């Protein structure tokens, strides 16, 4: 047997032993979680240089270069529009200031030549954050600059501790729209010196601060009042949904309610019809921290909630779901 033959045999034996070892090794169970610290929270935070977008209630000044007689001070209405002479109604909500200027120039181009328009925000009222839960002054807070988590909590008054001294919450949730939430382990981030403790927020974000003794679940999707709901010993799934105001019209008549545990990615799907059917006698046990999602009609797949809700994890235990784990 020559040297090349010996090497080839050795490689074959080695490959075979590796295959056997792989078969004997414990296989990871679905769903799999791949640790990826802080990625989810960073993806939730808007860019530092993100331009401000006009919103309902903002007071603006419209300046026309070289035409002081056209200057106008306006308030963006509840429908997101302003009204200009000649141009009529214009939608400005959602536009940046330069975009709004260009839109006004275009609307008046038939009446004036070579207009140069500058839009300035003189009073910010659309840049709002809602703070709820265990704070001294829950309610809406308006910001002139980019809202941040710590500023919002500071202005709402943090809950007093045993010595009647304001203390930083252990954790809080930030809800964005109907289908996004992130839980922030605030105290840990501050103690570790992580700048994400003062996370930049977006307009209309809702911050929820639970009390130290409170358990809760998050209800998202097609419900009237998405957000955190306290979890009591007597809580039922139907009761929690009722506390969230019930379903919206987009949920359809027979929604499939999805319950997700962010700690392990396990998802359960419950038919609302089965839930209300006495013959089924369903007993749904809700666990603190779980997320209840009511999708739009037509989206009943259990994986929908994992694909759509992003990020779906706390700042202390980040992970990214592997593709197709359910």
Any descriptors?
single chain; 326 residues; alpha+beta; Outer membrane lipoprotein wza fold like; wza like fold; five-stranded mixed beta sheet; globular; disordered C terminus
The strand order across the widest sheet is 8-7-11-9-10
CATH superfamily of the largest domain: Outer membrane lipoprotein wza domain like
What low-confidence regions span 5 or more consecutive residues with pLDDT below 50?
3-37, 300-326
Question: Mean of the pLDDT scores?
Answer: 77
N-to-C span: 51 Å
Secondary-structure element order, as H and E? HEHEEEEHEEEHEEHEEEHEEHEHE
Report the CATH architecture of the largest domain: Roll
Largest sheet: 5 strands, mixed
| Named CATH topology of the largest domain | Outer membrane lipoprotein wza fold like
**How many alpha or pi helices?**
8
* Total discrete domains: 2
Estimate the strand proportion: 15-25%
Helix content range = 10-25%
* DSSP E strands, number: 17
How are the secondary structure elements laid out?
Layout: H1 3-24, E1 33-35, H2 39-44, E2 59-64, E3 72-75, E4 81-84, E5 88-91, H3 97-108, E6 117-123, E7 128-133, E8 139-142, H4 149-156, E9 172-176, E10 180-184, H5 186-191, E11 206-209, E12 216-221, E13 227-230, H6 237-243, E14 256-261, E15 266-271, H7 272-276, E16 291-294, H8 304-308, E17 319-321
Parallel strand pairs: 7-11, 12-16
Antiparallel strand pairs: 1-17, 2-3, 2-6, 4-5, 7-8, 9-10, 9-11, 12-13, 14-15, 14-16
